[in-house]
Design a protein that fits this description.
It contains eleven helices and ten strands. The protein is an alpha/beta fold.
Length: 323
Protein backbone atom coordinates (compact mmCIF):
# COMPACT_ATOMS: atom_id res chain seq x y z
CA UNK A 1 0.00 0.00 0.00
CA UNK A 2 1.30 3.44 -0.95
CA UNK A 3 1.71 5.80 1.96
CA UNK A 4 1.58 9.12 0.17
CA UNK A 5 1.26 11.00 3.45
CA UNK A 6 4.85 10.11 4.47
CA UNK A 7 7.21 13.09 3.92
CA UNK A 8 9.99 12.68 1.39
CA UNK A 9 13.66 12.95 2.38
CA UNK A 10 13.85 16.29 0.60
CA UNK A 11 10.88 17.71 2.48
CA UNK A 12 12.27 16.45 5.78
CA UNK A 13 15.55 18.18 5.00
CA UNK A 14 13.71 21.40 4.24
CA UNK A 15 11.84 21.19 7.53
CA UNK A 16 15.03 20.61 9.52
CA UNK A 17 16.73 23.51 7.73
CA UNK A 18 13.79 25.75 8.57
CA UNK A 19 13.91 24.65 12.20
CA UNK A 20 17.70 25.17 12.58
CA UNK A 21 17.49 28.84 13.66
CA UNK A 22 14.80 27.94 16.20
CA UNK A 23 16.91 25.09 17.57
CA UNK A 24 19.91 27.41 17.88
CA UNK A 25 17.85 30.06 19.64
CA UNK A 26 16.56 27.44 22.07
CA UNK A 27 20.08 26.30 23.00
CA UNK A 28 20.79 25.59 25.79
CA UNK A 29 17.76 23.81 27.18
CA UNK A 30 19.55 21.86 29.91
CA UNK A 31 22.74 21.73 31.96
CA UNK A 32 26.06 22.24 30.17
CA UNK A 33 29.09 20.25 31.33
CA UNK A 34 32.40 22.14 31.15
CA UNK A 35 35.27 19.67 31.44
CA UNK A 36 38.49 20.91 33.06
CA UNK A 37 41.11 18.21 32.37
CA UNK A 38 43.24 19.14 35.40
CA UNK A 39 42.73 18.99 39.19
CA UNK A 40 40.88 21.70 41.14
CA UNK A 41 42.85 24.76 42.17
CA UNK A 42 45.05 25.25 39.10
CA UNK A 43 44.74 27.83 36.34
CA UNK A 44 42.53 25.69 34.09
CA UNK A 45 40.13 24.99 36.95
CA UNK A 46 39.97 28.64 38.04
CA UNK A 47 39.28 29.93 34.53
CA UNK A 48 36.67 27.19 34.03
CA UNK A 49 34.81 28.19 37.21
CA UNK A 50 34.85 31.89 36.39
CA UNK A 51 33.55 31.17 32.89
CA UNK A 52 30.95 28.62 34.04
CA UNK A 53 29.39 31.04 36.50
CA UNK A 54 29.13 33.85 33.96
CA UNK A 55 27.89 31.62 31.11
CA UNK A 56 25.31 30.07 33.39
CA UNK A 57 23.93 33.49 34.27
CA UNK A 58 23.88 34.52 30.61
CA UNK A 59 22.22 31.34 29.38
CA UNK A 60 19.95 31.04 32.42
CA UNK A 61 21.05 27.42 32.64
CA UNK A 62 23.42 25.58 34.94
CA UNK A 63 27.00 25.19 33.71
CA UNK A 64 28.85 22.67 35.87
CA UNK A 65 32.63 22.26 35.97
CA UNK A 66 33.65 18.63 35.66
CA UNK A 67 37.28 18.06 36.72
CA UNK A 68 38.70 15.02 34.89
CA UNK A 69 42.46 15.12 35.58
CA UNK A 70 45.08 12.63 34.53
CA UNK A 71 47.80 12.01 31.95
CA UNK A 72 48.67 15.71 31.68
CA UNK A 73 45.19 16.61 30.54
CA UNK A 74 44.73 13.77 28.09
CA UNK A 75 41.95 11.95 29.95
CA UNK A 76 39.56 14.88 30.13
CA UNK A 77 40.41 16.07 26.64
CA UNK A 78 39.68 12.65 25.14
CA UNK A 79 36.40 12.51 27.08
CA UNK A 80 35.18 15.65 25.32
CA UNK A 81 36.46 14.46 21.94
CA UNK A 82 34.22 11.39 22.29
CA UNK A 83 31.19 13.28 23.67
CA UNK A 84 28.00 14.02 21.74
CA UNK A 85 28.32 16.90 19.29
CA UNK A 86 25.46 18.89 20.72
CA UNK A 87 27.15 21.67 22.66
CA UNK A 88 26.31 20.26 26.08
CA UNK A 89 29.81 18.91 26.78
CA UNK A 90 32.63 21.43 26.39
CA UNK A 91 36.38 21.51 27.00
CA UNK A 92 38.37 24.15 28.85
CA UNK A 93 41.49 23.65 26.77
CA UNK A 94 44.95 25.03 27.42
CA UNK A 95 48.35 25.12 25.76
CA UNK A 96 49.38 21.94 27.60
CA UNK A 97 46.71 19.43 26.64
CA UNK A 98 45.69 21.13 23.39
CA UNK A 99 49.12 21.92 21.92
CA UNK A 100 52.18 20.70 23.85
CA UNK A 101 50.96 17.13 24.42
CA UNK A 102 49.84 16.71 20.76
CA UNK A 103 53.23 18.07 19.70
CA UNK A 104 55.08 15.57 21.88
CA UNK A 105 52.89 12.51 21.30
CA UNK A 106 51.93 11.96 17.65
CA UNK A 107 49.75 8.94 18.50
CA UNK A 108 47.08 10.21 20.85
CA UNK A 109 43.52 8.87 21.19
CA UNK A 110 42.31 12.29 20.01
CA UNK A 111 43.32 14.77 17.33
CA UNK A 112 43.69 18.24 18.86
CA UNK A 113 42.67 19.88 15.58
CA UNK A 114 40.21 17.54 13.87
CA UNK A 115 38.28 16.35 16.94
CA UNK A 116 37.26 19.78 18.23
CA UNK A 117 35.34 22.87 17.20
CA UNK A 118 37.08 25.98 18.57
CA UNK A 119 34.71 28.46 20.23
CA UNK A 120 36.85 31.27 21.64
CA UNK A 121 40.21 32.09 23.14
CA UNK A 122 39.54 33.05 26.77
CA UNK A 123 42.69 34.35 28.41
CA UNK A 124 46.47 34.62 28.07
CA UNK A 125 48.96 34.20 30.89
CA UNK A 126 52.71 34.66 30.40
CA UNK A 127 55.15 33.34 32.99
CA UNK A 128 57.60 35.34 35.06
CA UNK A 129 61.22 34.20 34.78
CA UNK A 130 62.34 34.50 38.40
CA UNK A 131 65.76 33.72 39.85
CA UNK A 132 67.14 33.25 43.33
CA UNK A 133 68.67 36.52 44.63
CA UNK A 134 72.06 34.82 44.94
CA UNK A 135 72.29 34.35 41.16
CA UNK A 136 74.57 37.05 39.68
CA UNK A 137 72.24 37.87 36.77
CA UNK A 138 70.05 40.97 36.76
CA UNK A 139 68.54 40.51 33.31
CA UNK A 140 68.10 37.97 30.53
CA UNK A 141 71.39 38.92 28.86
CA UNK A 142 73.24 38.33 32.12
CA UNK A 143 71.47 35.02 32.56
CA UNK A 144 72.40 33.84 29.07
CA UNK A 145 76.04 34.89 29.53
CA UNK A 146 76.16 33.00 32.82
CA UNK A 147 74.61 29.92 31.19
CA UNK A 148 77.25 30.03 28.45
CA UNK A 149 80.01 30.28 31.03
CA UNK A 150 78.57 27.40 33.06
CA UNK A 151 76.98 24.94 30.62
CA UNK A 152 74.68 22.47 32.35
CA UNK A 153 75.15 24.06 35.78
CA UNK A 154 72.25 26.53 35.93
CA UNK A 155 69.13 24.70 37.08
CA UNK A 156 65.57 25.67 36.23
CA UNK A 157 62.63 24.10 38.04
CA UNK A 158 59.28 23.25 36.51
CA UNK A 159 56.02 21.62 37.51
CA UNK A 160 56.92 18.58 35.42
CA UNK A 161 58.05 17.18 32.09
CA UNK A 162 56.43 18.99 29.15
CA UNK A 163 54.85 21.61 31.38
CA UNK A 164 54.77 25.18 30.10
CA UNK A 165 57.55 26.09 32.53
CA UNK A 166 59.68 23.20 31.24
CA UNK A 167 59.36 24.25 27.62
CA UNK A 168 59.88 27.92 28.53
CA UNK A 169 63.38 26.99 29.70
CA UNK A 170 64.05 24.67 26.78
CA UNK A 171 63.01 27.41 24.35
CA UNK A 172 65.72 29.67 25.82
CA UNK A 173 68.21 26.81 25.43
CA UNK A 174 67.23 26.50 21.76
CA UNK A 175 67.21 30.18 20.84
CA UNK A 176 70.27 31.24 22.88
CA UNK A 177 72.17 28.02 22.18
CA UNK A 178 72.88 27.40 25.85
CA UNK A 179 72.38 24.40 28.13
CA UNK A 180 70.47 25.01 31.33
CA UNK A 181 69.49 21.95 33.33
CA UNK A 182 65.81 21.10 33.76
CA UNK A 183 64.70 19.90 37.21
CA UNK A 184 61.11 18.59 37.11
CA UNK A 185 58.87 18.59 40.17
CA UNK A 186 55.41 17.19 40.81
CA UNK A 187 53.86 20.61 40.91
CA UNK A 188 54.57 24.33 40.72
CA UNK A 189 54.32 24.74 44.51
CA UNK A 190 57.18 22.31 45.14
CA UNK A 191 59.28 23.96 42.46
CA UNK A 192 58.72 27.38 44.04
CA UNK A 193 59.57 26.08 47.53
CA UNK A 194 62.94 24.74 46.37
CA UNK A 195 63.69 27.91 44.44
CA UNK A 196 63.06 30.02 47.55
CA UNK A 197 65.32 27.65 49.46
CA UNK A 198 68.10 27.93 46.90
CA UNK A 199 67.96 24.29 45.80
CA UNK A 200 67.51 25.48 42.19
CA UNK A 201 68.37 28.86 40.73
CA UNK A 202 65.34 29.78 38.59
CA UNK A 203 61.86 28.87 37.47
CA UNK A 204 59.11 30.11 35.17
CA UNK A 205 56.25 30.90 37.51
CA UNK A 206 52.67 32.08 37.13
CA UNK A 207 52.87 35.85 37.45
CA UNK A 208 50.15 35.98 40.10
CA UNK A 209 52.16 33.64 42.32
CA UNK A 210 55.54 35.23 41.61
CA UNK A 211 54.71 38.90 42.25
CA UNK A 212 54.49 38.66 46.09
CA UNK A 213 57.94 37.01 46.25
CA UNK A 214 59.41 39.61 43.89
CA UNK A 215 57.97 42.51 45.88
CA UNK A 216 59.34 41.00 49.10
CA UNK A 217 62.79 40.66 47.46
CA UNK A 218 62.76 36.92 47.99
CA UNK A 219 63.11 36.45 44.23
CA UNK A 220 64.27 38.59 41.32
CA UNK A 221 62.20 38.82 38.12
CA UNK A 222 64.46 39.09 35.09
CA UNK A 223 61.88 38.60 32.33
CA UNK A 224 58.33 37.76 31.35
CA UNK A 225 57.74 35.12 28.73
CA UNK A 226 54.98 36.69 26.63
CA UNK A 227 55.60 38.60 23.41
CA UNK A 228 55.28 41.88 25.33
CA UNK A 229 55.62 43.17 28.88
CA UNK A 230 53.01 42.28 31.46
CA UNK A 231 50.84 44.93 33.17
CA UNK A 232 51.49 43.03 36.42
CA UNK A 233 55.26 43.56 36.07
CA UNK A 234 55.55 46.62 33.81
CA UNK A 235 59.20 47.28 34.62
CA UNK A 236 60.32 43.75 33.78
CA UNK A 237 61.34 43.29 30.13
CA UNK A 238 59.92 40.56 27.96
CA UNK A 239 62.43 37.81 27.21
CA UNK A 240 61.66 38.53 23.54
CA UNK A 241 63.40 41.90 23.89
CA UNK A 242 66.63 39.91 24.18
CA UNK A 243 65.65 36.80 22.21
CA UNK A 244 63.43 37.83 19.27
CA UNK A 245 60.76 35.24 18.51
CA UNK A 246 60.54 34.02 22.08
CA UNK A 247 56.93 33.74 23.26
CA UNK A 248 55.74 31.26 25.86
CA UNK A 249 52.21 32.01 26.94
CA UNK A 250 49.80 29.85 28.85
CA UNK A 251 46.47 30.25 27.07
CA UNK A 252 42.98 29.02 27.76
CA UNK A 253 40.32 28.32 25.17
CA UNK A 254 36.82 26.89 24.91
CA UNK A 255 36.20 23.92 22.60
CA UNK A 256 33.21 21.79 21.60
CA UNK A 257 33.38 18.30 20.05
CA UNK A 258 33.85 18.20 16.28
CA UNK A 259 30.58 18.19 14.40
CA UNK A 260 28.78 20.51 16.81
CA UNK A 261 26.34 22.56 14.67
CA UNK A 262 27.71 25.92 13.62
CA UNK A 263 24.60 27.59 15.00
CA UNK A 264 25.33 26.15 18.46
CA UNK A 265 29.01 27.09 18.25
CA UNK A 266 27.92 30.62 17.37
CA UNK A 267 25.57 30.76 20.37
CA UNK A 268 28.37 29.60 22.64
CA UNK A 269 30.78 32.07 21.10
CA UNK A 270 28.41 35.01 21.54
CA UNK A 271 27.88 34.20 25.21
CA UNK A 272 31.59 33.66 25.91
CA UNK A 273 32.49 37.03 24.39
CA UNK A 274 29.78 38.69 26.49
CA UNK A 275 31.04 36.93 29.60
CA UNK A 276 34.69 37.89 29.04
CA UNK A 277 33.67 41.52 28.50
CA UNK A 278 32.02 41.78 31.92
CA UNK A 279 34.10 43.94 34.30
CA UNK A 280 33.66 41.49 37.19
CA UNK A 281 34.86 38.57 35.06
CA UNK A 282 37.82 40.54 33.74
CA UNK A 283 38.79 41.57 37.27
CA UNK A 284 38.72 37.97 38.50
CA UNK A 285 40.83 36.75 35.58
CA UNK A 286 43.31 39.61 35.95
CA UNK A 287 43.64 38.85 39.68
CA UNK A 288 45.30 35.51 38.81
CA UNK A 289 47.69 37.13 36.34
CA UNK A 290 45.79 36.43 33.13
CA UNK A 291 44.82 38.78 30.34
CA UNK A 292 41.15 38.27 29.37
CA UNK A 293 40.61 37.69 25.65
CA UNK A 294 37.52 37.03 23.57
CA UNK A 295 38.30 35.84 20.04
CA UNK A 296 36.66 34.36 17.00
CA UNK A 297 36.66 30.56 16.65
CA UNK A 298 39.09 30.98 13.76
CA UNK A 299 41.63 32.75 15.96
CA UNK A 300 41.58 29.93 18.51
CA UNK A 301 41.81 27.30 15.77
CA UNK A 302 44.84 29.08 14.31
CA UNK A 303 46.41 29.32 17.77
CA UNK A 304 46.21 25.56 18.24
CA UNK A 305 47.84 24.80 14.87
CA UNK A 306 50.60 27.39 15.35
CA UNK A 307 51.42 26.20 18.87
CA UNK A 308 51.52 22.52 17.94
CA UNK A 309 54.03 23.29 15.19
CA UNK A 310 56.12 25.52 17.46
CA UNK A 311 56.36 23.06 20.34
CA UNK A 312 57.02 20.10 18.08
CA UNK A 313 60.03 21.99 16.73
CA UNK A 314 61.28 22.95 20.22
CA UNK A 315 60.82 19.42 21.56
CA UNK A 316 62.73 17.90 18.64
CA UNK A 317 65.52 20.50 18.65
CA UNK A 318 65.98 20.28 22.42
CA UNK A 319 66.05 16.49 22.22
CA UNK A 320 63.34 16.03 24.85
CA UNK A 321 62.59 12.34 25.31
CA UNK A 322 59.05 11.27 26.14
CA UNK A 323 57.82 7.83 27.06
Amino acid sequence: MTRSWLPSAASLGAVMLALAPTMANAFPERTIRLVAPFPPGGGVDIVARVLAESMGEGFKQTVVVDNRPGATGRIGTEYVARAASDGYTLLLGSVGASAIIPAAYPKLPYDAVKDFEPVSLLALAPYALVVHPSLPAGNVTGLINLARAKPGQLTFASSGLLSGAHLAGEFINVLAKVRMLHVPYKGAAQAMTDLLGGEVVMTFAAIGGAVPHVRANRLRAVGVTGAKRSPSLPDVPAVAETLPGYDVTQWYGLFAPAGTPRSVVQRLHEQVVKSIAQPAVRKRLESIGTEPVGSTPEVLGGQVKTEIARWRSVIQTAGIKVE
